[in-house]
């Protein structure tokens, strides 16, 4: 078979990423050569491919669902917000420029060509490409020049399935409104809907499913039940809003280890701590105030797209003053904050800034971004990781720790993904337990890679058991059904 479809959503965090991954895993298990694709991603959770290209972390997860190595074509355009108004534009895995929303419009013609070309290359190499939209296709103020939703669907002739999050409420109004706000040529590509995150008795939902079919003339391809643990490789910090403390498996030793992850305003790659939550007896929660650190055994300062600004926020909230004397792990931007001084004429333009001084190191921001897949060792264990940073940290003392350093109960590294290495993670947690006096023993047999595969299989199972897979195959082979009704008011004018 040959084909492609676009998974859109009524909102951000409706479940587009996990539905795309689930469809990819289901197709891969059928022996289909399938690849994921997202034309334009706005995310601070990113990954580095084997050839040094930066793409969205969600697309790397979707590539894993397909059994593929991630590639730049899978996410040709990545926007990384550094403030409320400006974002770094990463094109085919390399930083291009920093722009505000108005300046970004001037790039749209070029970026549309980049996006369409990348999709065409994937379609030539694979039988099926499952595309993920961005935000909602009914963001009518952004329709002109759109390259991620209906603009892409029109350019490539893609049938569109709209995912709605019923857990938020108002899902049927959102589905109807999404279609009705689009112009007729866009509506003609909206083939149907998927209800996501349903909890309760399916029979109570059936009347509404029939009504939305009658009102829109479009199929509901299925209802996906709520799945605990579907937060794997979340795309953006919206996923943290309803994310409770995670890591509920009973401890292997007598006590649990409590990890507090500081939710910085521009937090990036918070997925680094997912591996900690996979350990029995480790609880992970995201915090924003000093009081929430009171019972923490380990505080994690994660990555940041705005190191100097987020450091100022740490001080303003009182979190910075609560860190000395605690066990702290800084990763990438968090490591930079722990240094003595930061010289930043690149990201913030702030020049020389005093760091927290908890590690004997200095930071100088370089114009060129470091992107790589480093390997090393710590605690006698091999470590494979990836790095994405402008800030170059020079350790001036302490003990070596991966590429960074350690001083007492404070550790720092620029390497993302290090905690996914099972032996290293266990040794590090045992060290944290020793310095904090916790009777915590890491379990000897947890494989984070195996856990990720189990979760991807669970997403594939959701698609196989709860969606009309025959109808999805017909969409892939034949496109959107002809003669779909055009809903009033017929939407707004937009560019094809």
TrEMBL record:
The lineage of its organism: Bacteria, Bacillati, Actinomycetota, Actinomycetes, Streptosporangiales. Pathway: Cofactor biosynthesis; adenosylcobalamin biosynthesis. Residues 258-423 form the CobB/CobQ-like glutamine amidotransferase domain. NCBIfam families: cobQ, PRK00784.1. The active site is at residues 332, 416. This is Cobyric acid synthase. Catalyzes amidations at positions B, D, E, and G on adenosylcobyrinic A,C-diamide. NH(2) groups are provided by glutamine, and one molecule of ATP is hydrogenolyzed for each amidation. The keyword Ligase applies. Pfam families: CbiA (PF01656), GATase_3 (PF07685). SUPFAM superfamilies: Class I glutamine amidotransferase-like (SSF52317), P-loop containing nucleoside triphosphate hydrolases (SSF52540). Gene3D superfamilies: 3.40.50.880, P-loop containing nucleotide triphosphate hydrolases. GO terms for biological process: cobalamin biosynthetic process. GO terms for molecular function: ABC-type vitamin B12 transporter activity; ligase activity. Residues 6-228 form the CobQ/CobB/MinD/ParA nucleotide binding domain. HAMAP family: CobQ (MF_00028). It comes from the Bacteria. It comes from Streptosporangium sandarakinum. Coiled coil: none annotated. Keywords: Cobalamin biosynthesis, Glutamine amidotransferase, Ligase. PROSITE patterns: GATASE_COBBQ (PS51274), GATASE_TYPE_1 (PS51273). Belongs to the CobB/CobQ family. CobQ subfamily.
